[in-house]
Fold this sequence. Notes:
The structure holds two protein chains of two kinds. Chain A is mainly beta. In chain A, 0% of the residues lie in helices and 53% in strands. Chain B is mainly β. The radius of gyration of chain B is 14 Å and the shape is globular.
Amino acid sequence: GENVEQHPSTLSVQEGDSAVIKCTYSDSASNYFPWYKQELGKRPQLIIDIRSNVGEKKDQRIAVTLNKTAKHFSLHITETQPEDSAVYFCAASLNYGGSQGNLIFGKGTKLSVKP
Amino acid sequence: DSGVTQTPKHLITATGQRVTLRCSPRSGDLSVYWYQQSLDQGLQFLIQYYNGEERAKGNILERFSAQQFPDLHSELNLSSLELGDSALYFCASSVAASGNTGELFFGEGSRLTVL
């Protein structure tokens, strides 16, 4: 089955700096890679996702890159703000027949943005 | 509000007992997923149901079982509870139909404490 490794487990940056979180996956058949943000005491929420036919996707200050050959993908947050402080989870899954397979999550990265 | 409803929000019980966690997915969503979140294990995939049938199974213990009913709500049954079962249990749902975005919508979680 799929296995997702995520690094680092904790990340502390100064407000305005960039943050990068990296993940690797094991199943080369995986084709969908979302990132979820979980604020303290809240539920995980999707912030951005990428499919295997795309190498990069950007949404304002957030971008995700995918390297299928190396089986790794990364989340980039630029101009970080204190409200970006949260736990970020990467995930991988195999979509088949138009429906979504189960998501396998990494163990999370706790991002702290210091004012 | 994600539209996914989980009950109860909090549950305290003793070792050896049995509990049932309930989840109502978003209106129209056919897939329901159960995840266990412990402090050091991130989001562990337990099981997925699609339109009443088991679709995928993760690291779900034999003491745990789940089902999805005709009205699409789902229940996760945890029996012979151990201290290590204390965790936050999330239910998530998705459209799981052709053309969907792949996003999982999480409920607020059920926090189980086993004493």
